[in-house]
Write a structure and sequence with these properties.
Layout: H1 2-9, H2 14-58, H3 67-83, H4 88-134, H5 137-160
Helix pairs in contact: 2-3, 2-4
């Protein structure tokens, strides 16, 4: 697996491995933040669309509204101005944005999973590299192999007994 990771990313040095790990970590953090923003944006945009719709339906009859409804209309006007809505078409564009959010979240989650997998592979490669550099890696592999062979022999001996 490490050789595949080296080939995939074209690593030729420890610095290259560490730089890629940092890059992937930043990508994971960015995608995590994007998912959070989109998840938070969805209910807010839904509420703001309702307020814009209320405004568009009532702004011509504002003189006929009671005081509470006029306050609600004034708050809705701020949302209308925030989004620059001047027509029903603008409102439809916002509704399209709202309906696209679940798809955008799903895409970001998929990208996040891919980046996390890549980061895990690069981090594993970095760990192996460090073990090799420390000089204990091959010794540990040999020791582990001998231990497995010893366990197999003991198991065979127990089965024969």
């Amino acid at each position: 697996m490490q050789l595949q990771t080296i080939g995939e990313f074209g690593f030729s040095s420890r610095d290259g491995i560490m730089a890629k790990a940092a890059e992937l970590k930043n990508s994971v953090d960015s995608l995590t933040e994007e998912i959070k923003v989109l998840t938070d944006e969805q209910p807010t945009l839904k509420s703001e669309i309702a307020q814009i719709r209320y405004y568009l339906e009532n702004y011509r009859n504002k003189r006929n509204l009671d005081a509470m409804a006029q306050v609600k209309l004034a708050a809705a006007k701020e949302i209308v101005e925030k989004h620059g809505v001047t027509s029903e078409e603008d409102l439809l564009d916002l509704e399209k944005q709202l309906s696209a959010i679940p798809s955008r979240i799903q895409t970001a989650k998929s990208n996040l999973a891919n980046e996390q997998t890549r980061l895990k592979r690069v981090n594993q490669l970095a760990e192996v590299y460090e073990k090799v550099v420390e000089g204990n890696y091959i010794d540990n592999l040999i020791r582990e192999q001998k231990e497995q062979e010893r366990r197999r022999e003991e198991e065979l001996t127990r089965k024969k007994s």
